[in-house]
Amino acid sequence: MAVPLLRLHYLGHSSFVLRFANGVSVLTDYGKSNSFGLDSPICDLGDLKPDVVLYSHHDDDHDRGDEFPGATILDGSHLFEEVGIDGIVFEPIKTTEHSRGDNTSFMISLEGLAILFAGDCQGDIDTIAQPAERERIEALFARRIDLLLVPIDWAHPIAANAAAFVGLLRPRTVVPMHYWSSQAKAGFLALLEEENGRGEKRFLIEELEQPNYAIDSVGARGAAVSVISLEPAPWQAVVS
Fold first, then answer.
1. Nearest alpha-carbon partner for 89 in 64, 71, 114
2. Of 125, 112, 197, 212, which Cα lies nearest the Cα of 167?
3. Smallest Cα–Cα separation from 106: which of 14, 40, 32?
């Protein structure tokens, strides 16, 4: 059986394990679970020793500091140029949570597969209805995106703007993250379903009761965006 280009495992909040076909494992925003008293738990990493750890910023729910001896830490706060590690290219893109440039989104590329881990870009998402900001965001993410990992909840609801953000970027596939309740995610998915009810089906929604998703190949973007809803769980290696 061929090894997929990417295996994705959702740990919760904004934390994923990305396991590439070349054996490299990338961990995103592995912060302290339920920080600030908010109900968005991050599941246990178990015995996984990631090769690369990404930090989009340094809030407690996204950063546990230097807990990964031997791993390459890519700290978005200090990274301004792309980095190549074992054939994988990490391009930092300065985005906004509270003030311009206080978050780093990462474009991650391998063998033509383009993944955008957005981190906490809720400030950009929140401005999507403003014409000048919409134009700026469109220019910032002008390239093709195969997989978008996008925040859909914040200190106030942003689901409608997050849906518009996905519609603007038009990735091949999107996985929602960074939400405080199952109701928040359900609300986001319902907004996308409403868009489907207005004529052309723009979103293919698949609710998986599991943390894992695999991408087998790089293909042309279809007419509709695949929306994959994952359920967080502790890390468990998948045997090929």
1. 114
2. 125
3. 14
Q: 10 Å Cβ neighbour count for 238? A: 10
Answer yes or no: pTM beyond 0.90: yes
pLDDT score for 38:
65
Distance CA 88, CA 84 (A): 6
Q: How far apart are the C-alpha atoms of 105 and 47, rounded to whole Å?
A: 27
Confidence of residue 199 (pLDDT cuts 50, 70, 90): confident
* Residue boundaries of the structural domains of the chain: 6-229
In the predicted structure, residue 88 carries a pLDDT above the cut 70: yes
Residue 34: which of 181, 212, 158 has the closest Cα?
A: 181
Please give the backbone phi and psi of residue 59, each rounded to the nearest 5 degrees, phi first: -70, 155
In sequence order, what are the residues at sequence separation of 6 or more whose Cβ sits closer than 8 angstroms to the Cβ of residue 171?
A: 116, 145, 146, 147, 148, 221, 225
Query: CA–CA separation, 26 vs 115, rounded Å?
Result: 12
Residue 31 has pLDDT above 60, yes or no: yes
Sign of CA dihedral 153, 184, 236, 47: positive
| Confidence grade of residue 69 (pLDDT, cut at 50, 70, 90) | confident
Mean pLDDT of 45-55: 93
Q: Which CATH topology does 6-229 take?
A: Metallo-beta-lactamase; Chain A (3.60.15)
| Cβ-based neighbours of 70, under 8 Å, separated by 6 or more | 49
